[in-house]
Every structure is written in structure tokens, then in C-alpha cells.
Amino acid sequence: MSTSTDKKQGIIIRLLFLLTYAALASWLSYFYIYLKEVPQLNTLQIGIIAGFQQFNTVFVVPVWGLLSDRFGRKKMLLTSVGLSILLIPGFLLWNGALGFTLFMILLTLFYNPIMSLLDTVALDYEEQSGGKTSFGQIRLFASLGWASSSLLTGMFIDKEHLSYIFIIAPLLLLAMWSVMLVFYRPLKVTKSLSSLKPVVIKHLLQAERKLLLFLLLVFLYSVFTAPVYLIINVYYHELGAPNSIIGLAFAVQAISELPFFFFGKKLIDRFGASRVFLFTMTATAVRMLAYGFTSNPEVAVGIGVIHGISIGLFFVSIVAFVHAIVPAQLRSTGQSLIHTFYAGGVAFGNIFTGLLDNFISVRTTMWINGTVVLFLVAVVILYAHSPLYIKRRNN
């Protein structure tokens, strides 16, 4: 691939991230507010729907990862995005918790793999560029798309109706699909996967015990940090924030990711992916404790600047960790495992948060879970310095 073509593809990939995450933000930032206000579902019902949104990832994304490694990123992304475009407006047809839950399960069969497949496209480009462009430098365009879309959508639906989110999102995804179809040229991958058997994943995890332990840690972390991801908008709604403030909160969160996507690789090169990951765990715990002790929406918006560490640096660190272990021919599969364990944790965490809503507020859940995450960090640090771990590492 020539230098000029390489640069053009870099621009196209950045645009794909921008449009994709703008589409995600336009409906996910307000979807659970929609469920709260329009069909008037309770937090338990919302937690179950949010749980299924993520839980499907556990089974679906690895399959799409295997298909992508076998048939190519572009074909599978066009299929995944195309079917999502057709399905998202279907939410307007439902009014009850059961209908929303079943339709969410259907949508996520095709929708959930998008982010994982797009991450792999960025990693392929990082390798093709010879390290001149990092994954984080591409991924920051996702934050720009999320920030602008969540803010503008919030301002729009404050004047119009919440149901417009199901129109805006597919239109933005259609723009992304069109750009990919016409302009994106698949990059060369070291080797294609020859087998689609799920046993490939089993063998990978058995061969790389460190990878399995790391993914289990990601899962546990995601269970208890779930409230700051999908249903953070319910927290703001609980504090009495209007949609414009919620949109501002998501914009602040997304903008705070930018420096960490840009400089994240330098931090990882200096301190190591595992240390950086532990730092993100600690910062997110502090963020949750702060959310738990404030009742002011404006203050909560300010606390959201830590989101750059919670998501931006978090994903850069776990992607780098897995990328360094997994063979090139299993790269899509490796990235899909990240999303699988992360999403599985968030799924259980959201259902757990919904169950707790019968007894305590989302705000109270924040500080309880933040305390648990700090405890989890302490356990990991103690284990890393234990004689047993040091002996295994040296062997």
C-alpha cells in the first residue's frame, strides 16, 4: 500500500469511528431516559433490558470475531451495520418491558459486534502504519463523535420528542455504512483464520493463562462499575437533570477521553498495560464514590471528567494488553473476547443495579460499588506481590 493511499485510508477509518460513535451516542445516551419517561418502565425493568443489551455480547461478538478473521472485516462490518440500520427504528413499535427486552435481544445480535470489529480495523491500520499511528489516536475520533452527537441530540430532543433518537441513529449509521462501502479498502492482515470452530477460542485461553486471568479481572471490574456506563443517564435523571444537562454530561465525558486516546500509548510504553489498567480501576472507584456523595447535577457533570480515565485509558490499556498476547491471525477474536468479558460484567452489573433499586437509589449504589472496586484493586496488588505469583511469573 502506497504512502498516499495509506494516509487516505487513515482518514477514512477516523471518519468511520466518528460517524459510528456519533450514531451510538445519539440513541444510547438517551435510550434509558426514553424507557423511563415514555413507556414509564421502572429501574429494575430498565436494568434487565440494559443487561440483555450487554449479555448478548458474551455469545454474539466472539462469533462475529471468528467470521471477521475468516471472511474479512469489511464484509462483516457492512452486514452488522446494515442490519442495525434496519432494526433500530423498530423500537418505536414497542411499549412494554417484554417487547423492549425481546427486541433488544434481536438488535444486539447484529449491533453489538460493531465496536469490536471497528477496533480491529484500527489495530490493522496501526500495524500497517509501522507504529506511526496508534490505536488511541484513531479511537479519539470516536470520542469526538460521541461528544458532539450527545450534546446536539440532547439540545434537539429538549425541544422535540425523545423518539427522534431512533431516527437520528440509523441515519448516522447509514452515512457510516456508505463511507465504508465506497471508500474503505481492507488492509492486509498477516494471516487469515482457517477454522471457524469455537474450540479456537478455548485453545487460545488455555494456551494463554495470563490472558484468561486478565479477562476475568475485566469481568469483575465491569460488574461493579456498570452504573457509570449504560445507566449513568438514569443517575442524572434521579438527580433531576434535564436532557440538555445529560447531553452536556456525556459531551464532557467524551471530550475527557481525548488526551488519553492520544497519549495513552506513551503511558503504556512507560508504565506497562497492567499498571495502567490498575490505575484506571482506582480512578473509576474514586469517580463512583464522588457520584455517590453528591446530589447536584452540575457537580456530577464535573466529576465526569474522570471518564477519560474510566473509558479512554481503560480501553487503550486492555486493548494493548490483549494485542501483545494474541497472534495476528486471531486479532478479531482477541478483541471480541475483550468486549465479551467486559459486556458480560456490565450486563450482570446493570441487572444487579436494577434489583437494588427496590431498596436503595442509584446514587447509593455508586458509592457502595466504588468501595468494592477499591477492595478489588487492593486484592490484585497484594496478589501481584505474593510469593506464589512471583514464583509463577519467574517460571
Structural account:
The protein has helices at 3-28, 31-37, 43-71, 73-87, 97-111, 113-128, 135-159, 165-183, 199-207, 209-225, 232-238, 243-271, 273-292, 297-303, 307-325, 331-356, 362-384, 387-394. It is an all-alpha fold and 395 residues long. The chain has one domain (3-185, 205-394): Up-down Bundle (Growth Hormone, Chain: A). 53% of the residues are buried.
Major sheet details? none
**Number of H- or I-type helical stretches:** 18
Q: In CATH terms, what is the fold-level topology? A: Growth Hormone, Chain: A
Name of the top-level CATH class: Mainly Alpha
Number of strands: 0
Which range does the strand content fall in? under 5%
Rg for CA atoms: 20 Å
Give the distance, in angstroms, between the N- and C-terminal Cα atoms.
42 Å
List SSEs in N-to-C order: HHHHHHHHHHHHHHHHHH
Weakly predicted, low-confidence segments? 190-196
Given the helix and strand composition, which structural class is it?
Answer: mainly alpha
Overall geometric form: globular
Number of domains: 1
Average pLDDT value?
Answer: 86
Question: In CATH terms, what is the architecture?
Answer: Up-down Bundle
Helix fraction by DSSP (H/I, runs of at least 4): over 70%
CATH homologous superfamily?
A: MFS general substrate transporter like domains
